[in-house]
Amino acid sequence: MRTFADLSGERSIRVFAVGAATAQAARAAGFRLVLSADGDIEALAEGIGQRRGELRGAVLHPGAAELAGDLVGALEKLGVQARSVSSTRPIR
User: In a 10 Å sphere around its CB, with 0-12 CB exposed, 13-18 middle and 19+ buried, how is residue 46 labelled?
Assistant: First the structure.
């Protein structure tokens, strides 16, 4: 979250977080629209999927070099466009 916040000055985008710590970091960085799944990748994907009608464009998953799961794959199964990017992998 800190790296993404440092790289992007945009604070009006919606942030979807796996847990409370990441959600709190997003709020502390100035993001106002924050949803915490308080679970795992599957819970996060389900929460995002339930809001797919509110989304405008693809969900960007700025992940760490070691991802905890395949959020992009889980979102695509739910019909949500998604892209991932990390320090070691390009946007797909």
Answer: middle
Residue in 80, 74, 89, 91 with CA at minimum distance from that of residue 40: 74
3-state secondary structure 9-42: CCCCCEEEECCHHHHHHHHHCCCCEEEECCCCHH
Phi/psi at 83 (nearest 5 deg)?
-135, 145
Question: Looking at the chain, which runs of residues are DSSP E strands?
Answer: 14-17, 33-36, 59-62, 82-85
The DSSP secondary-structure symbol of 52 reads: G
Other CB atoms within 10 A of residue 3 CB: 11
Residue 91 has pLDDT above 50, yes or no: no
Single-letter amino acid code for the residue at 87: S
Query: Cα separation of 72 and 54, whole Å?
Result: 18
**What is the band of 90 on the pLDDT scale with cuts at 50, 70, 90?**
very low
